[in-house]
Design brief:
alpha+beta; 60s Ribosomal Protein L30, Chain: A; 2 domains; 9 helices; 4 strands; 9% strand
C-alpha cells in the first residue's frame, strides 16, 4: 500500500472535503485507490454542499454509494445468519476451525487471515477452509513471517509450510523477514524454527459466516464484525 499517498488522500478528504477525482489527480493515483482509502470518512454538511456545487452529479454518486453500502451490509448479515445456522449443526471440524480463527485470526470484514507457528494448527485451519467452505486451493494464499536467522533457510522454511498446507508454490506470497538492526543483539534462533505462517482467503461470505458461527457457538452479539 502507498502509505504516504493514503495519508495525504485522507487529509485532503477530511480537512478540505475534496472530491475523489481531484484527490486522485493531485496525488497521481487511481481513483479506485482513493475511493478505498477515504470510504470511511464522513464529510460535514458544509463539505457536502460544496461538493454538490462543484459537481452536479455528486448527489447521484452519493446515492449510488449508499445503495451499494446497504447492499453489501445485507450480504454480510446474510452470511452471518448462514454461519449461525451452520453452527447449530454441531460439526466438530467446523467448531474447531471457528475457534481457531476466533483465537488467532485477524479481524477484517472481507478477508480471512489466520497466523500461527504450530504446523498442526495451520494444517487443521486449511482443512477447515477446504471442507467446510469448499475453498479451492487457488484461492488460498500463504505467507511466511521469518526472523533474521532464518534467511539462510528461507526456501526450506517456505517449502515446509507449503508441505504442511499441501499447496503449490504458486500459492506462496512474498515472505516477510524481520531483520534486526546492527545495534540489536536480539536472537530468535531455535525459538520458532519455522517462523509463522499466515493463511489468507479473500472471500467476504466465508469470513462473515465464521463471525456468525463464533457468535452462535459462544452466545454473544458483536455488531462491529459487520462493519
Amino acid at each position: 500500500m502507498k502509505t504516504v499517498e493514503r495519508k495525504r488522500a485522507r487529509r485532503l478528504r477530511r480537512e478540505e472535503g475534496l472530491p475523489i477525482n481531484e484527490i486522485a489527480r493531485r496525488l497521481r493515483v487511481a481513483k479506485s485507490s482513493v475511493s478505498l482509502w477515504v470510504r470511511d470518512i464522513e464529510l460535514t454538511p458544509e463539505q457536502q454542499q460544496a461538493l454538490r456545487a462543484m459537481n452536479p452529479a455528486y448527489n447521484k454518486q452519493l446515492n449510488g454509494s449508499r445503495a451499494n453500502a446497504a447492499r453489501y451490509l445485507a450480504l454480510r448479515k446474510q452470511a452471518q445468519e448462514s454461519g449461525r445456522a451452520r453452527a447449530r449443526r454441531g460439526e466438530r471440524l467446523h467448531l474447531a476451525g471457528c475457534t481457531l480463527f476466533w483465537a488467532e485470526g485477524s479481524r477484517n470484514r472481507n478477508t480471512v487471515r489466520f497466523t500461527n507457528s504450530d504446523p498442526e494448527m495451520v494444517r487443521l485451519f486449511v482443512t477447515f477452509l477446504r471442507q467446510c467452505f469448499e475453498v479451492p486451493d487457488e484461492q488460498i494464499r500463504i505467507a511466511c513471517n521469518l526472523f533474521a536467522d532464518h534467511l539462510p533457510r528461507q526456501w526450506e522454511i517456505e517449502q515446509h509450510w507449503l508441505d504442511v498446507t499441501d499447496l503449490p508454490r504458486t500459492s506462496l506470497c512474498k515472505s516477510i523477514v524481520n531483520v534486526y538492526s546492527k545495534h540489536s543483539k536480539k536472537k530468535r534462533q531455535n525459538k520458532l524454527p519455522y517462523g509463522t505462517c499466515r493463511v489468507t482467503v479473500s472471500r467476504t461470505q466465508v469470513v462473515q459466516s465464521i463471525y456468525g458461527s463464533i457468535q452462535e457457538y459462544a452466545g454473544f452479539e458483536r455488531p462491529a464484525w459487520l462493519e
